Amino acid sequence: MTTASTTEGPLIIIGGHEDKEGDKVILKAVAERLNGGRLVLATIASHAPDGYFEAYQKAFGALGVTDLVELYVQDRAETQESDKLALLEGAAGVFFSGGDQLRISSQIGDTPIEARIRQIWREGGVLAGTSAGASVMSDTMMVRGASAETHRLGDLRMAPGLGLVRDVIIDQHFAERGRIGRLLGAVAQSPRVLGVGIDEDTAIIVESDAFRVIGSGAVYVVDAEGVTASNIAEGRPDNTLSMFDVRLHVLASGDGLDLITRRPQDPPKAAEGPRSAA
Amino acid sequence: MTTASTTEGPLIIIGGHEDKEGDKVILKAVAERLNGGRLVLATIASHAPDGYFEAYQKAFGALGVTDLVELYVQDRAETQESDKLALLEGAAGVFFSGGDQLRISSQIGDTPIEARIRQIWREGGVLAGTSAGASVMSDTMMVRGASAETHRLGDLRMAPGLGLVRDVIIDQHFAERGRIGRLLGAVAQSPRVLGVGIDEDTAIIVESDAFRVIGSGAVYVVDAEGVTASNIAEGRPDNTLSMFDVRLHVLASGDGLDLITRRPQDPPKAAEGPRSAA
């Protein structure tokens, strides 16, 4: 698309609970980008991954993804094992399922497994992640913070993520768990970082420094660059966040965002002539 | 404060679940503005108001409000009864407790009871309302809309309220019930109206076309005046809201907002010399 060519593949970042029974819009977007290749389902985020693989196998199977393998590591030592690494050989994509984002970063961060996954992506493979697997995509990830209550300055815990998408912090299950407060708290700390809150059954597809929204919910983009006042530096940990002049975009399926200019983009116009009347 | 003098009393608009056991910051603000006068507790919003009066009697009693009476109307015919109207004689304030905002507007709207309450306020009395009693203060009130899920264009139901505060739409239990989506949906329909979402145990005190925040939570102000694009007019009822360039302020206790300019205001500086060091 752009003149600055890159071979990096798409990132598909999902707010959790993507549809696995109906139209499967999001899983279909993953499947289409595999071109028939192998998908590795990384269930590393989960403490008890039983049943994850079977559920995805059924959903992806219906979408023609027949070469699906599970990658699980119980502990960090296993990331050195050659049979684990072998699972990633020739893979066209990796899909991180949900659980605890700290399990992903702590178990595979800076290991041969992570290096191999990153290489797959750099060579054009798809990286997808849902829920915890979504949060872990950013350089700084949300780890803990109250949902569905007033945001207090001291509530938030963040940690380094895999750093695949830069200057963005991702939150998931966004509308469903009432997380606008904690996302605002995160960007208040560092307005350089754009806050991206993704509803369930909703995803962003990041390609060439921009993303598009797919799925049934909304994506909230919180831009604190123009903030004129906040109490983030003076307040005590139990203080309520105060912040003036945040810019907020609510994006639905088809909408996009340029990650460099931070400007939202309307859905692309259909190229095949006029649409049929409603 | 301003040269354009008005005798209207303050409006104290509360996001629900105000503290009744501890410091009672919000109820204290109500009590202080009664100057020892009678407070009428209007439990009209509730279908089953048993116990409301006793809880408020205990809390307000501890704050020195000894002349507290309950006003309940089972149905609209009762609004004509002279003993109901007599409860409001000489009252220094009225407090609407929670329940269903449509019960308030449908049972007392355009009745002698409503006229008398409005007169108390015009002559300087306090009007307070919590939860449903908060929503009903605006000219158009939120009646129904999904909480804690993706906002769909057709989700929202609004109705005329008591119209005490103009060009504002109020939502309550805001962080706790994940209501940013529906408030955005409301202002998208009419950007003239400012969206004000109030957390639990949090209130705005409206005086002279401005308000200040008190209590432990946050107040979210959603200003759609600068919105550059939205799908509100074209979308189908089940479509997800899309809206670019919303201005959002998060206000904590002490912060204010000028309702004419729509600009937030920092807490007033202490007038009694420097604060003690932390």
Task: Tell me what you see in this structure.
- Chain A is α/β, with parallel strands linked by helices.
- The first copy, chain A, is 21% helix and 27% strand.
- The first copy, chain A, is built from seven helices and 16 strands.
- Chain A has helices spanning 25-32, 52-61, 82-87, 101-108, 112-122, 132-135, 180-189, and strands at residues 11-14, 38-42, 68-71, 91-96, 126-130, 140-144, 157-160, 168-171, 194-198, 202-207, 210-215, 219-223, 229-230, 243-251, 256-258, 264-265.
- In chain A, the strands form three sheets. In chain A, strands 3-2-4-5-1-10-11-15-16 form a nine-stranded mixed sheet, sandwiched between helices.
- In chain A, a hairpin with a 5-residue loop joins strand 15 and strand 16 (264-265).
- Chain A is globular, with a radius of gyration of 19 Å.
- Chain A starts with 10 loop residues before the first strand and ends in a 13-residue tail after the last strand.
- Residues 1-5 and 272-278 of chain A have low confidence and may be disordered.
- The A-B interface holds A 148-151, 175-181, 184, 199-200, 202, 216-218, 220, 222, 229, 231, 239-253, 255, 264, 266 and B 148-151, 175-181, 184, 199-200, 202, 216-218, 220, 222, 229, 231, 239-253, 255, 264, 266.
- Strand 14 (243-251) of chain A pairs antiparallel with strand 14 (243-251) of chain B, so a sheet runs across the interface.
